[in-house]
Specification:
The structure is a single chain. Helix content is 42%, strand content 22%. By secondary structure, the protein is α/β, with parallel strands linked by helices. Strands 9-10-8-7-6-5-4-1-11 form a nine-stranded mixed sheet, sandwiched between helices. It binds iron/sulfur cluster.
Length: 360
């Protein structure tokens, strides 16, 4: 089982915290980018895709005809997938773009909200407010797409607990099936990084996170992955491919993939991508690296790591490979081990980074 990720590197405007591979949208560049994507898709032999994920950047900032052009290129993969997600921002999601998404088989929408507080939206330089987002969600449902995920951020500059509670409340009352929560990180090359904005106090950040976990549980969201919450088992199937450490293709400027023990990173430079193609750098992963990455991804999930799956993947018993680390963290109450699985406890989930150090 594999996933296909397509990276759309354009945005209408650049958020203050962002250092993803993205640039301001222009029609001419996006036309050339589409040609380059077509060439890359032809060059990579893509097969067996269970999921398609069109991320970015902001895919919804493409013009209607460019969006349709992209979906035409991906048509055969979308038709064979069980889940096709597109990332959108409410301010560029028109009804005609939504209709095209529906027509080409997109069945899941992931929308960036980040905050519903007008003062915080100004600070992070995002346009879509609560009204625009709730209106977009209604319009998505009207088009017949009912799997909708929303992104929220915590630890924003001067964000208060009262504001965070209000955001969670509003999000949980929207007609969505999935929520992703991200702590703000100050990236060196973002506007925040250049302005030396200070990161949130770690204790306050932990309080935001724990408040969200408790609140969303009361609202019927299952905390199935460290940063992700789903209603009625509407898990992000594409992301489950990453968390289960399956292979995936990455297409587009700034995309990465992993196939048959080789990770590849396409160029992040749009000019290079348009003139020379993906120009991917490839790295062969050692078994040791792969086993560690599989642990790092698998322990993010509530279900944990299925020992049998680990064995089938690596022909090694996970307990034998990591006996010292597992024994230590089971004793400390951070991990729980059974005959079938290895998973983090609630306490362990809060300190996963520290636990992983012992698996290195
Ligand atoms: S956060 Fe998303 S929408 Fe904002 S600039 Fe980055 S990629 Fe674009």
């Amino acid at each position: 089982m594999r996933g296909l990720y397509v990276h759309v590197p354009f945005c209408d405007h650049i958020c203050a915290y962002c250092d993803f591979t993205r640039c301001g949208y222009t029609k001419g560049l996006a036309d050339k980018w589409l040609d380059a994507v077509e060439a890359e898709l032809k060059q990579r032999q893509i097969s067996d895709c269970e999921t398609v994920y069109i991320g970015g950047g902001t895919p919804s900032c493409l013009s209607l005809s460019q969006l349709e052009g992209l979906l035409k290129l991906l048509k055969s993969y979308i038709e064979n997938s069980t889940e096709t997600t597109i990332e959108v921002n409410a301010d560029s999601l028109s009804d005609d773009k939504l209709a095209v998404c529906k027509e080409y088989g997109i069945n899941r929408i992931s929308m960036g909200a980040q905050s519903f507080q007008s003062d915080l939206l100004k600070v992070i330089e995002r346009k879509a407010d609560y009204e625009m987002i709730s209106d977009a969600i209604e319009r998505i449902h009207r088009q017949g797409i009912h799997d909708i995920s929303l992104d929220l951020m915590y630890g924003l500059p001067n964000q208060t607990m009262a504001q965070w509670k209000e955001d969670l409340n509003k999000a949980a009352d929207l007609a969505i099936t999935h929520l992703s929560l991200y702590a703000l990180t100050i990236e060196e090359h973002s506007r925040f990084g250049r302005a030396h904005v200070q990161p949130c106090d770690p204790d306050l950040e932990a309080d935001f996170y724990e408040e969200a976990i408790m609140f969303l549980k009361r609202k019927g969201f299952e905390h199935y992955e460290i940063s992700n919450f789903a209603k009625n088992a509407h898990y992000a199937r594409h992301n489950l491919i990453y968390w289960h450490y399956e292979d995936f293709y990455g297409i587009g400027c700034g995309a990465s993939g992993k196939l048959n023990h080789i990770r590849y990173d396409n160029t992040r430079n749009l000019h290079t991508y348009l003139t020379e193609g993906a120009n991917a750098k490839e790295f062969r992963l050692t078994k040791q690296e792969e086993m560690f990455e599989a642990v790092m991804m698998g322990l993010r999930l509530k279900e944990g790591i299925a020992k049998q799956r680990f064995y089938e993947h690596f022909h090694e018993d996970i307990h034998t490979v990591y006996e010292t680390a597992i024994t230590k963290h089971v004793r400390l109450g951070n991990l729980k081990e059974s005959a079938q699985s290895l998973k983090t406890t609630y306490q362990g989930m809060l300190i996963l980074h520290d636990i992983l150090v012992d698996f290195l």
